[in-house]
Design goal:
Blueprint (H helix, E strand, L loop, with lengths): L5 H7 L9 H13 L7 E12 L3 E7 L4 E7 H5 L9 E12 L4 E14 L1 H15 L17 E6 L5 H12 L4 E6 L7 H13 L6 E4 L6 H8 L1
Parallel strand pairs: 6-7, 6-8
Antiparallel strand pairs: 1-2, 1-4, 2-3, 4-5
């Protein structure tokens, strides 16, 4: 490939040749976001998913089925809101777009939450739950108790997320000898259901896997630890 003309080089290369650290670049991005009037006091409608909270804040994802936006509400602010959020709730949020410099992530920090009702995804989940219940898939005789002392645990999650490390730390915190086999999967967006299902089928075919965990990022360490107790 031929070298770009000097005029094109000038268009893409900083004139000063400045090299920024990650922290400096994140600070620069944050200042742009904070100074953008179009990102202050925005109103957005969507459905709450992946909701979890701790003593400090409430975290969730707002989705319209095609795109997702991380959201965070400080716990003391949420306690003063006249709203009860749960997965599947459709809401209108009003707040500011914020850039978290340490994690390099954009999220919406709402100061007002208006509950619209049950979202489309929640209705779809309820329809599926009712259908599977009629088929008897939730009957007690269909359920199997996981082994008390598994030797190998399969984990279906994204290799690019933190969930794999949270799960690994929680398991090895109880038994460091457990072998963990991670199957990479897409855990967000429209491709997630098929990708997760393929991951489960892949691990289920292995006779060495005693139990399978499906997980994605989010939630506190204490919640994860309790789920494994």
């Amino acid at each position: 490939m031929a070298d770009a003309p000097d005029t094109e080089r000038q268009a893409v290369e900083p004139e000063t040749g400045e090299v920024l650290s990650v922290s400096q670049l994140n600070d620069r991005i944050a200042s742009v976001v904070e100074d953008a009037p179009a990102l202050d006091g925005v109103r957005c409608i969507g459905e709450v998913t992946d909701l979890h909270q701790n003593s400090t804040a409430l975290y969730f994802t707002l989705t319209d089925g095609d795109a997702e936006l991380p959201c965070m509400i400080w716990a003391n602010r949420y306690r003063n809101m006249d709203a009860e959020l749960e997965d599947g709730t459709e809401v209108i949020l009003e707040g500011d777009i914020d850039y978290w410099t340490e994690g390099g992530k954009i999220d919406l920090k709402p100061w007002e939450v208006i509950v619209v009702g049950d979202g489309d995804q929640a209705a779809a989940v309820e329809r599926l739950r009712s259908e599977l219940e009629e088929r008897g898939w939730f009957d007690d005789e269909q359920k199997q108790r996981p082994p008390a002392f598994p030797e190998r645990v399969g984990v279906v999650t994204s290799l690019r997320g933190d969930a794999r490390y949270d799960i690994q730390n929680a398991i090895h915190g109880q038994d460091p000898t457990v072998d963990i086999l991670v199957k990479d999967a897409t855990v967000q967006g429209s491709n997630a259901p098929r990708s997760i299902a393929n991951g489960i089928h892949h691990l289920d075919r292995s006779e060495d896997v005693d139990a399978i965990i499906v997980g994605r990022g989010g939630g506190s360490d204490s919640n994860l630890q309790a789920s494994l107790d």
